[in-house]
Design a protein that fits this description.
The protein is of the alpha+beta class. The protein folds into three domains: 31 residues; 40 residues; 149 residues, Beta Barrel (OB fold (Dihydrolipoamide Acetyltransferase, E2P)), CATH 2.40.50. The chain contains five helices and ten strands. The strands form two sheets. A five-stranded mixed β-sheet has the order 8-1-2-10-9. A five-stranded mixed β-sheet has the order 3-6-7-5-4. The chain is rod-shaped, with a radius of gyration of 59 Å. The chain starts with a helix and ends with a helix. About 6% of the residues have low confidence.
């Protein structure tokens, strides 16, 4: 009997231990879901409160910005450094901008005035000098002469000359240029530069025929060299010195100075005048 009772007690104890162990295992499983839900609820509430707070802060900031903007527009905000209202500051900025703009305009006007004054000065100086005239410069012997170019048709190398009996002593003969027949005048002999005609045997590679057109009447003169074209205002042409006398003086109209060079201006129409008189006769 004692043995049987001992076995029963042992079984009963072992069962109790097993139940207790099972209960210990079950209890934590039932409590875990409860804690998770509570944590989730707490997090949700906290996040909702945070959202409400952020929304409230945004509204406060917006109101502050609106208030600051309104006050700025009304000129009620003062500059911390100067104590000036925004309205006064804007007015001062506009004044400074207008002054700067005026200075720039004055500078531009000053430059424009200076430029205009300089142009006017040049125009007046040019007007005082008269009209600018172009001259053909050429050489006869060792002297340089000039004639206005408006009657010049062309300049060519010497052509063969056919002597014509009974013509003026200043005419070397006649020549043909592009099918046009014309007299060749020795201008050096005509104005008294040389005592005799310019012998064709003495012509060289610099010798040229200068052809003029007077109302469709072509006349050629022979020169020893063409020096080029020079420009001069009417007032730059100096009068012929009174010391210049002799037959040439009646054909000379002035003197042009260019550095160390002197060009004696002759009236080519007067030089060829004998031809037109002969034609009139």
């Amino acid at each position: 009997m004692d043995i049987l009772e001992a076995r029963k007690k042992a079984k009963t104890k072992s069962r109790g231990k097993g139940v207790k162990k099972r209960r210990k295992k079950i209890q934590p499983e039932e409590k875990k879901p409860a804690k998770k839900d509570e944590i989730k609820d707490a997090i949700l509430e906290a996040s909702q409160d945070l959202a409400v707070m952020e929304e409230g802060l945004e509204k406060i900031e917006e109101r502050e910005e609106e208030k600051a903007l309104i006050e700025a527009l009304e000129g009620k905000v003062e500059d911390e450094s100067s104590g000036e209202t925004v309205e006064e500051k804007v007015e001062m900025d506009q004044q400074v901008f207008q002054e700067t703009e005026k200075k720039e305009e004055d500078a531009e006007l000053s430059f424009a005035d200076v430029a205009a004054a300089e142009l006017l000065k040049q125009a007046e100086a040019q007007k005082a000098l008269g009209e600018e005239v172009q001259f053909l410069a050429f050489r006869l012997g060792k002297e340089f002469f000039a004639v206005e170019i408006h009657h010049i048709r062309e300049i060519v190398k010497p052509r063969s000359i056919t002597p014509v009996p009974g013509v003026s002593e200043h005419i070397l003969g006649i020549t043909s240029v592009r099918g046009n027949i014309m007299p060749v005048v020795d201008v050096g002999y005509r104005i008294g530069m040389f005592d005799s005609l310019y012998d064709p045997g003495n012509w060289d590679k610099k010798t040229r025929f200068v052809i003029f057109n007077f109302d469709r009447v072509l006349v050629s003169m022979v020169v020893q060299e063409v020096a080029g074209v020079i420009k001069a205002f009417e007032e730059e042409v100096e009068p012929v010195p009174p010391t210049v006398t002799g037959p040439a003086s009646e054909y000379l109209v002035g003197i042009i100075r260019r550095d160390s060079d002197i060009y004696t201006v002759i009236s080519i129409r007067e030089v060829f005048d004998f031809l037109f008189k002969a034609e009139g006769d």
